[in-house]
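Bench notes, afternoon.
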Amino acid sequence: MLQFTINKNLDELINLLEQLDAKSYQQPITSLSNATIGGHTRHIIEMYLCLIEGYKNGIVNYDKRKRDKTIELNKESAIKKLRDIKTKIAENDKNILLQNTFNGLPVITKSSYQRELLYNLEHSIHHQALIKVALLEIQYDLVDEDFGVAQSTIEYRKKCVQ
């Protein structure tokens, strides 16, 4: 079920990118401290790629993810990476260690692959909400109202309508 939900989420992002022109993908957005849709998309992609790579040895360090400007500047590259992620996330659950640094000190936390997939999904939704803010600022009307909205919020809204 989780993989299905992630694929659906990534498909929503792919659909948006396929409709978006290159200029809008790279345009600095004032209300997002001049971040771009491309920058947010790159960040989503690189977090997933970091998890996929870390799965091999059971250690994930999101702080050490690659920061590939090509993804940020070229929406076709981003779409290719998103499609690639969809083919690579179907792995068995296993224990993994998260490595981070806070205030200069190393922190190691136990986690699992499925837990980190869920984290990445929630993280993706959060950044898609920011992408939606960008689209509103540039007056680009390409997404439905549930884009960038957590599933629990969507379900809550449905209950309120009844």
